[in-house]
Amino acid sequence: MADVAPVGRAKVVGEQALASLRRNVSERLADLIRSDPDWAAQAADVGLVDRAWLEHPGEQPFRTAPPGEMIQRFLERTTERRPSVLANLGLSALQALSLARTDLEEVGPAAPITVVFTDLEGFTRFTANEGDEVAAALIAEHQRIMGPIVRSRGGRIVKRMGDGLMLAFPAPEAAVLASLELVAAVDRPLPLRAGLHLGEAVVSHDDVMGHVVNVAARITEAAKGGVVLASVDVREAVAPMAGVRFGRARRVRLKGIDPMSLVHIEHAG
Length: 269
Prior knowledge:
The chain is an alpha+beta fold. The chain has 3 domains: 4-55; 66-104; 106-267, 2-Layer Sandwich (Alpha-Beta Plaits), CATH 3.30.70. The chain has 11 helices and 9 strands. The chain has helices spanning 4-34, 37-46, 51-55, 67-81, 83-89, 93-100, 123-130, 132-152, 172-185, 211-222, 232-238; strands at residues 111-120, 156-161, 164-169, 192-203, 208-209, 228-231, 244-246, 250-254, 257-267. Strands 1, 2, 3, 4, 5, 6, 7, 8 and 9 form a 9-stranded mixed beta sheet that branches. A hairpin with a 2-residue loop joins strand 8 (250-254) and strand 9. The termini are far apart. The relative contact order is 0.10. The model has no long low-confidence stretch (mean pLDDT 80).
């Protein structure tokens, strides 16, 4: 019995040494990938590495995207940047994405998720003034900018709805950071707005269903251009966050939904 304590201490010391070695290797690998910004952006975009890991290699998993999702991300990136590639193969974007999702269950059980809606303020008037062709080009450019940001934060584009997107994120922190980046990246000629809410939803390969979706959509309608607006549920789930400032909660009436408290989210500093 006298040898049990020394053996236990040796095991703890060994585990600590191994953990330290892993952190050191992770930090060096992250430094190597970050040394080429384009390489790092592409790796995070398709899910080869997690962007959260790149930013904090000793604290986050190296990669969380499963193989099927990586293929889906690659195809989404391809259709955004080079739509003619799929056309040459005789595949539509939807057909290609459905092939990438064959390993996913059709419908999963209800699970916690953060839903984000975005749209461009003043898009209807812009289309009337500039014409359909200019408006279509604006949406295409808008989606090329937004796709990599969403994917690099571990989110996915659930639906494209005219000038807006419906997004889903497993982690609310990632949804907050992605929303701030999206609003900052898309401001001309029309400002972007984003609305966030979290809750349980039923998730399938091509949709997210639940009350959380309706609430997020209504919150977006209440936001102004250039603003990220979220329910207090989001703030309570993630605050405090480094580099992020949450405004004071305000009670707001939303169409078809009981009044609820909402907060503005901004970059701190």
